[in-house]
Amino acid sequence: MKRNYLIYALLMAVFLSSDVISAQNYFGNFPVKADPKTVGNRLSRRLMETKHQLYFDRGIHYAEVCTWYGALRFAELTNNKDLIKLLRNRFELLFHLEKELLPPPIHVDQNMFGCLPLRFYNITKDKRYLDLGLPYADTQWQLPANANEEERKWDKKGYSWQTRLWIDDMYMITIVQSEAYKATGDPKYINRAAKEMVLYLDELQHPNGLFYHAPDVPYYWGRGDGWMAVGMTELLYNLPEKDPNRARIMKGYLLMMDNLKKYVNKDGLWNQLITEPDFWTETSGSAMFAYAMIVGVNNGWLNKEEYAPVARRAWLGLCNYINDKNDLTEVCVGTGKKNSKQYYMDRPRIVGDYHGQAPIIWCAYALLNK
After folding, report:
1. DSSP class of residue 190?
2. Does the CA dihedral 94-79-134-161 come out positive or negative?
3. Where is the signal peptide (predicted)?
4. How far apart are CA 192 and CA 170, in angstroms?
5. Is 211 helix (H, G, I), strand (E, B) or coil?
């Protein structure tokens, strides 16, 4: 009798264990070092300890803007009023003492700065932020008098004169136009971004769902593809369900996510060149892919049982690359195109760069935004 009871207890334990696994909360129950609220708070506050990153004399660099924007969204989601105050105090200087650091609206990377004051406006309703941020969204579609022939060609077709068909554009354009849409309610902003995204997908996405770094560079560079992943994600999150371009963008997003699953490396992350198994783990692009999957699962675009384990493993893997100073390691430096595989292999890896800090914070608030 006692033996039968033990067998029964063992069978029940196995049953309950499998039930727990099948019903697992993939985006919860993290180890302490991987708790998204803790990680997000630490990396957001790390921003306050760092100096501005500049384009020489052309204002604050987009990578810092991405990190600042992410920290603000994290603080907003977690209702961390102290952090919002710190982030706002850092920004207030741009209205007077640091006014010369405002990027001029002359390039796609610099125009994306507008997403930051527009996000502050959505939180505070302080019209100064709207007045500062909205021109960055508007001038992206206002042809300058000194525009060249290529810029005039895109403008005539209804696209941004800043169109380059570079894959990182699809975050830079999307994020500022999305925030302008949320701040004003004017659909022209989100419609612009959607039309632009369809152009880039039709021109640049390959049948395997990925994107070359450039048409003449046949390599799938991690962070470059990461910009497309997060750009599509942000746009789908903000785009109305009935928008005529939504189905095309969703198709491109799903194709990319499906193929990314095939290239996960031993760390649960992705390599510097995504399809090259002998390359090194690159964390900034990996964090962007993780963010895209987390948001996709949370919004029902991706099958939870298929993608949530991939996203969870990626988050845990990324947390292993955060050092004691709350800096992400193994971040590829800023990288221009070159038709050389060895060039990508040899790119320096840096620590604490904003290109990596930003998407880790994005992942943290995405995991909390259930």
Report:
1. H
2. positive
3. 1-23
4. 12
5. strand
- Cα distance between residue 205 and residue 167, in whole Å: 10
Question: What pTM did the predictor assign?
Answer: 0.93
Q: Which amino acid is at 145?
A: A
pLDDT, one tens digit per residue, over 178-217 is 999 999 999 999 999 999 999 999 999 999 999 999 889 9
Residue count (the chain):
370
Segment 252-286, tens digit of pLDDT: 999 999 999 999 999 999 999 999 999 999 999 99
Q: Kindly give, in sequence order, each residue whose CB lies less than 8 Å from that of residue 40, ignoring residues fewer than 6 positions away.
A: 74, 78, 361, 364, 365, 368
Mean per-residue pLDDT, 307-324? 98
Amino acid (one-letter) located at 53 = Q
Cβ atoms within 10 Å, residue 63 = 18
- Is residue 281 within 8 A of residue 270, CB to CB? The reply is yes
Task: Report, as an integer, the average pLDDT of 154-165.
Answer: 97
Place of tokens 């999307």: 174
52 CB contacts (<8 Å, ≥6 apart)? 60, 61, 64, 98, 101
Helix (H) or strand (E) run with residue 146 in it = none
**In contact, 269 and 283? CB cutoff 8 Å:** yes
* Residues 147 and 162 sit within 8 Å (Cβ to Cβ): no
